[in-house]
Amino acid sequence: MGHKILDAKVQEFINANLKTDLHSLLLKKSPFPEVSMQEIVQQIKGKKVAQKKFPYLLKDGIIFPPNLNLEQASSQATAEFKAKNLSGKSFVDLTSGFGIDAYFLSKNFEEVTLVEQNSELLEIVKHNWGIFGRKADFINENLEHFLAENKEKFDLIYLDPARRDSEKNKKFLLEDLSPNLPEIQDELLKISDQIIIKLSPLIDVSYLVSVIKNIAEIQIIAVRNEVKELLVFINSNIEKEETRITAINLESEENVFSFHYKEERSAVSEYSEPLQYLYIPNNAVLKSGGFNGVSEKFALKKLHPNTHFYTSDNYSEDFPGRILKAEIIDSKDIKKGEKFNIISKNHPLTPDEIKKKYKIKDGGNGYLIFTQTQKNKIILKASLEFN
């Protein structure tokens, strides 16, 4: 594809069709003999993804890769966040993919090496980096071969392992990833004291702590309350007892929640029926597993061991999540046709079943929360309005 797709007339056609239905475009013949309609549609898709996911690439002369590479790439928001506190002389990305993480990380390092086994993808990344005047050593090899040949040491190794199987299993074991991290960890630590591994948000935090050595920190990164990735920071000087878990919700006003893994095991929650305020942790905090730590740190009581809702009579404004003013109501108080945001946790009815049973609709400013305390199943009517 390369330079032909960058022809001014082809680019003009792409930009003119950003809002055209892509299925209907694919049925048409390409107006350009040397560029297929599939290639054109791929560039339109790339620009559409870039608008939301990495707007810095909305620039003349950028080439976009196939869909899979667009999906697997980090977002600009998470990549910029990662790059914030990392710097040094030399950095290697062993699985660079479309190079979004590497691009932002590279701003803080003098020497940058990108290793990628897909030669076409690497050519695209090399071209795009050239548009920005960004330099790197682009190496078209698989990671194992690079490691076998490599004699250099790096200040930072970055790694985003690929899934081996095409099935979208919900459980991810590290040995099912390529490369197998527990197998190569010692090898990586020989060439760098600091390794960062990006993993799926589906991987369990306590599982990671049990199978990876020298974890300094696990960062759970959400964007607007959707957990996007887990970042594992490995440092050769760290003992397991020192592992820190940090929950971050980007593009929100919420504070970061951080604790040592061992603290959670000794933390204890107190329980209570609902008080004046109800606290719902954000999804990054829920993923962290720091349920008793939340209770202790913010002096909140839990409703039930399996319901991660918290309550107090005092307003704790630093809490990382939603804070609602709540009161218990009787089911008879729910009027047919009313609108609520419905939440069901640790309760037999799903939100859809609740809507059907009480003939209510989604929406509005208020919340109806169906849950249980240690004593009873309850319904809470709640609001973000505190007046």
From TrEMBL:
Record InterPro entries: PG_1098_Fer, SAM-dependent_MTases_sf, Thump-like
Pfam family, one: Thump_like
Boundaries of every PG-1098 ferredoxin-like domain copy: 277-320
Signal peptide: none
Domain THUMP-like span(s) in chain numbering: 335-377
Descriptive protein name: Uncharacterized protein
Organism: Chryseobacterium salivictor
